[in-house]
Amino acid sequence: MIRRLIPVVAAAALLAGCSDEADPARPVGDAAPGTLRVLAGSELADLQPILDEAAKATGVTVKFSFTGTIEGADKVASGSAEQGFDAVWFSSNRYLELVPEAQKRLGTASKVMSSPVVLGLPASKVKELGWDGKRVGWAEIAQAAGARKFTYGMTDPSASNSGFSALVGVAAALSGEGSALDANRIAAVAPQLKQFFSAQTLSAGSSGWLSEAYQRRARKEDPGAVVDGLINYESVLLSLNASLPEPLTLVYPGDGVVTADYPLTLLTSASSDAREAHRKLSDHLRTPDVQRQIMDTTHRRPAVPQVQPDPKFAVKDLVELPFPGSQSAVDGLVTTYFDQLRRPSRTLYVLDTSGSMEGDRIDGLRQALSGLTGADESLAGKFSRFHGREQVTLLPFSSTALSPMKYEVPQNDPRGVLDQIRTTATSLDASGGTAIYSSLRSGYDVLRQQIDADPDRFTSIVLMTDGENTGSEDVTDFQLFHATLPPDLKGVPIFPVLFGESATAEMEQVAKMSGGKVFDARSRSLSAAFKEIRGYQ
Predict the structure, then answer these.
(1) How far apart, in Å, are the Cα atoms of 422 and each of 199, 209, 370, 461?
(2) Closest CA relative to residue 517, chosen from 151, 212, 157, 221
């Protein structure tokens, strides 16, 4: 069924994106009585007002640190989560439960709410597609996507559970066998999946930033091309509707969805005080009054049968698609998505190698780039490496921009090219001044040629600098230059990375004018920031 939804006034209009300041490797507070330290998915930031009220009612204070699903699984599996957290709270435990070392560290879980991952399109587009009042399936959606009858945005499945759930759901539905996916069935449906993902024109590392970018483009406030719709949580789409020029119609595929059930889960290492805090908080959040409050303010479905779902949830009889039965199947599906299925990416790295980078800073840059070539063998590192078919250009700069070094990662056997990138990264040296804006401007000459030759790619710029500009061109000069760019270049997002003594206000300006986002590496490693950026490329 497809049903147009009336705009809803959201208490927290947009979900917060992944925190650039919270480092999940660090504790978020003392293990004091009445405090529950929680490693969580970033979309749970919108629960803070409800948790503030819960603290008054129960005496339990929640301290969040945000991370992605797979990175969180890595931390639980390695045992590092136990060093600073009492519990985890992701949109689902399905992936964690497939990783043996993570599964054994999970204790009592309490489901608090739910939200399916669905497709949202403007009512006019739904009517144009002939889907108004119909219950369509994923195969029909994939066929329309392959014919470019609509475009959509989706989060990175290695960084955000909404994208992860969408990938699992559409693959399971297209396989059509009603049982868990394995490697053979993934290969069998790869052509249809590639057709489906050809219409993805916007990517993000978090549901919050994806929503914000979609809203800016819908309002023509962003230089990027307008995207027709989004694949995201039902709750996110309902919240977003209040701020869009044309509200989204939610498409609930008749052959099924993957639903987030948000289990607040103790770690087995939790203290007795943390266990008691978990019990009090879980009981409070599942009371009928609080469940209604969660439903009204966050647009998620209630988890207890005593509370009837609101009419805004257009479809009640959702079919739940099977989740893959092994970690290898999930990892294989995510790897196939990056290396074969989705539109390939193109990234220009404009890298500060000025004299102020000498020492630990240039070593950090070398390590960050090397990590993206496969040197980082963690779960999160494996998926954030440079992908098959990806174009990677390194443009170091100091007093001037140096010669660009261009690479294209093969779909099959990428090791040779990745080794070349690693060799280049480890040979970077620090000297000279910091000509940020003239070097950034030079990068557009590289992109212009690449886009003319192959326009159908996700294209982005990563700008890393540890200091203020010392070149002859300043941020105002760059703004004037950027305003003259053609649409295909103007819409390329710039992702500045704050490092050292970066000029924060200027980097924010650069990100805003290009539709990008600032990442902060001043209180964490450059490698962590570079891995997070991968979700937006």
Answers:
(1) 32, 30, 5, 19
(2) 212
- CA-to-CA distance for 370 and 385, rounded, in angstroms? 9
Residue 401: other Cβ atoms inside 10 A: 21
Q: Which two tokens stand for residue 89?
A: 């709270």
Cα–Cα distances in angstroms (integers) from residue 289 to residues 9, 45, 172, 283, 286, in the given order:
20, 20, 36, 12, 8
446 contacts: CB under 8 Å, gap ≥ 6: 348, 393, 395, 404, 406
Query: What length does the chain have?
Result: 537
208: left (phi over 0), alpha (psi -120 to 50) or beta: alpha
Instruction: Yes or no: say if 532 and 498 are a contact pair by the CB < 8 Å rule.
Output: no
pLDDT means over runs of 10, the chain (537 residues): 37 31 48 89 93 98 90 92 96 93 97 97 97 93 96 93 91 80 86 95 92 92 92 95 94 94 97 97 98 98 96 92 89 93 97 97 97 86 92 98 97 95 97 97 97 96 95 96 96 96 94 96 93 93
3-state secondary structure string across 330-344 = HHHHHHHHHHHHCCC
Separation between Cα atoms, residue 207 and residue 230, nearest integer Å: 10
Which pair of tokens denotes residue 410?
A: 């093969």
pLDDT of residue 33: 82
Alpha-carbon span 24 to 526, nearest angstrom: 14
Answer yes or no: are the C-beta atoms of 435 and 401 closer than 8 Å. yes
* DSSP at 42: G
For the chain, the helix, strand and coil percentages under 3-state DSSP, each to the nearest 5: 45, 20, 40
**How high is the pLDDT of residue 18?**
35
pTM: 0.89
Query: Contact at 8 Å (CB) between 148 and 289?
Result: no
* Cα-based distances in Å from 10 to 251, 297, 381: 20, 6, 36
**Helix-then-strand count for the chain, H and E:** 21, 19
- Whole-angstrom distance, CA of residue 117 vs CA of residue 335: 21
CB 65 within 8 A of CB 38: yes
Which residues, in sequence order, are CB contacts of 512 under 8 Å at separation 6+?
A: none
The per-residue pLDDT for 28 is: 55
Per DSSP, helices labelled H in 286-414 are 288-298, 327-336, 360-370, 379-384
